[in-house]
């Protein structure tokens, strides 16, 4: 068994390096020894797979990924963790740590340079402050990856995986379902981390779709519609679309009628097909 499943070893390396946790960087490190092996295995990585990890922290998940995958490239923003990772991952020769910001790094270039001709997956315990932006960045940039297996706060997991057209759905659910098939793999209690966050977490897997579930000519407009629809959840769809898209109510009424949607419907009732119908009706209107 690896030393990295031993919490006192991990704490020892961190304290030897004078490391203190940064709340601003979303540093809640996994210390439950059963979570990382399960996450790495469910990410689908094998000896033909390259893995990108965002935020390796002390390297507990990286260690499991490196044992299964052909190569792991882990992007860590906090340079104080570099000596820690040097020590904890010393036994692996298939891990590369990049000190950088996963929100800014050119990930297309990284994949082309580090994983030519390889199947690539993303696996990470994400810093909670960039959960949605990082997921949306990866999906919107259409990176050539097979899936994203990520730990996020439980509430975010529920929202991301909610089927559009159901009460729990939001703008992120619709966007995620356009690019991927999301599933909630398992829940992780707050006590599995140091320091323990105030809420529980969950591991979700987004398997990238080859084709989107609806056919859209103007993707930018489709996403503007979704964003506007959910911009004021308490209002009716017609009011939020009118203010969110800066269009008169009469025009929105005509669009909804053309898309066969009740004017007093709410955003969370809209399926992917409904959002697509609104987008097409808007396009025809202009
Ligand atoms: N993977 C480790 C684990 O599971 O124990 C640490 C996960 S911790 C939730 C998030 C990690 O992401 C931290 O190591 C933090 O420093 C790093 N991080 C925060 N913002 C980042 C960013 N923009 N780019 C890359 N890493 C980031």
Structural description of this entry:
The longest helix is centred in the last third of the chain and has 14 residues, at 272-285. The radius of gyration is 21 Å and the shape is elongated. The chain is an alpha/beta fold. Helix 2 crosses helix 3 (60-68). The chain is built from twelve helices and nine strands. It starts with 6 loop residues before the first helix and ends with a helix. The protein has helices at residues 7-16, 35-42, 60-68, 82-88, 107-114, 131-140, 154-161, 171-179, 219-229, 237-245, 249-258, 272-285; strands at 29-30, 49-54, 71-76, 95-99, 119-125, 147-153, 180-188, 193-194, 201-208. The strands form two sheets. The protein has a seven-stranded mixed sheet, sandwiched between helices. The protein has a two-stranded antiparallel ribbon with strand order 1-8. S-adenosylmethionine (SAM) binds next to strand 1, helix 3 and strand 3.
Q: Which helices and strands appear, and what pairs or packs with what?
A:
Elements: H1 7-16, E1 29-30, H2 35-42, E2 49-54, H3 60-68, E3 71-76, H4 82-88, E4 95-99, H5 107-114, E5 119-125, H6 131-140, E6 147-153, H7 154-161, H8 171-179, E7 180-188, E8 193-194, E9 201-208, H9 219-229, H10 237-245, H11 249-258, H12 272-285
Parallel strand pairs: 2-3, 2-5, 3-4, 5-6
Antiparallel strand pairs: 1-8, 6-9, 7-9
Helix pairs in contact: 2-3, 6-8, 9-10, 9-12, 10-11, 11-12
The structure holds S-adenosylmethionine.
């Amino acid at each position: 068994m690896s030393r990295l499943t031993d919490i006192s070893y991990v704490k020892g390396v961190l304290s030897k390096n004078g490391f203190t946790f940064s709340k601003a960087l979303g540093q809640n490190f996994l210390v439950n020894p059963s979570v990382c092996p399960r996450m790495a295995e469910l990410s689908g990585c094998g000896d033909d797979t390259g893995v990108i990890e965002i935020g390796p922290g002390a390297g507990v998940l990286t260690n499991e990924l490196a044992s299964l995958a052909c190569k792991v490239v882990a992007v860590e923003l906090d340079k104080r963790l570099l000596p820690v990772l040097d020590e904890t991952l010393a036994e692996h020769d298939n891990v590369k740590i990049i000190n950088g910001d996963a929100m800014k790094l050119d990930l297309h270039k990284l994949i082309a340079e580090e994983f030519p001709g390889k199947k690539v997956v993303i696996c990470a315990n994400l810093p909670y402050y960039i959960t949605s932006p990082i997921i949306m960045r990866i999906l919107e940039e259409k990176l050539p990856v097979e899936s994203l297996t990520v730990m996020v706060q439980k509430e975010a997991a529920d929202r991301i995986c909610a089927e559009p057209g159901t009460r729990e759905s939001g703008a992120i659910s619709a966007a995620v379902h356009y690019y991927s098939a999301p599933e909630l793999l398992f829940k992780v209690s707050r006590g599995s981390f140091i320091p323990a966050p105030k809420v529980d977490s969950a591991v979700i897997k987004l398997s990238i779709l080859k084709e989107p579930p609806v056919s859209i000519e103007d993707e930018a407009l489709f996403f503007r519609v979704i964003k506007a629809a959910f911009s004021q959840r308490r209002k009716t769809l017609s009011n939020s679309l009118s203010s969110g898209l800066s269009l008169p109510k009469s025009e929105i009424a005509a669009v909804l009628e053309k898309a066969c949607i009740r004017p007093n419907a709410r955003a969370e009732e809209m399926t992917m097909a409904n959002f697509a119908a609104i987008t097409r009706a808007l396009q025809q209107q202009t």
